[in-house]
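Before any further analysis, we paired sequence with structure tokens, yielding the entry below:
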Amino acid sequence: MADNVVTAQRREEKGKGPARRLRTKGLIPAVVYGRKSEPTHLAVDPAGLLAAIETPHRFNTVLTLKMDGAEKHVLFKDYTVDPVTRRLLHADFLEVKLDEPVKVEVPVVTVGKAQGVTDGGILSLATHEITLEALPAKIPVRIEVDVTNLKIGSSIHVAELTPPEGCKLRFSSNFVIAFVAVPEKEEVVAPVAAVPGAVPAEGAAAAGAAAPAAGAPAGAAPVAGAEAGKKGEAPAKGGKK
């Protein structure tokens, strides 16, 4: 843990004003929460904190927090970032004892190729983290779930997993971890065949001639507005006699 050291300063002032002044100095406000002690308010270097958790364990990295000549072991539990710049604005730590179990969230990954995928199914991961309890030094980097024998329509539940040595899985219901879904069949719509004698759609009449009114007999007079050039026919309204 020598490389996972975070140096902190105790801070007495609280609120938005003191927090802004800290950030102008390149520091951010932080709080350490203990199981049996009052929260401790600190100021830490955000760059040093982010560098300390650059390990495979990420947020489950056990950090050594140095302050006022004393040391504490902590986990980086929560944070706040600027919504625009994404800079770290605040950090929360949880004090841990190396000889006492702690509850953490550990990432879940699948290993192997599911039989159901080979048969055309789709593998889905229903959760990305599992809660477990372990000593700080025994926290695993990840929980691997072997899906090799998983068939279409089958699933793996949390109770079926074997926890790593020194760990206990904590769950209130036997929820699904991974499953292979049946692929959805693409529906093919057949083209509609033309019906003989069907009335064409609006605007689809033959060019150069207006369609006769529905039910009109063959040879019926053209619709109003058509050219009146035949003998005996009255000219259109407003035309010459």
Summary: Helices lie at 16-24, 46-52, 115-118. The longest strand covers residues 70-81. The first helix runs from residue 16 to 24.
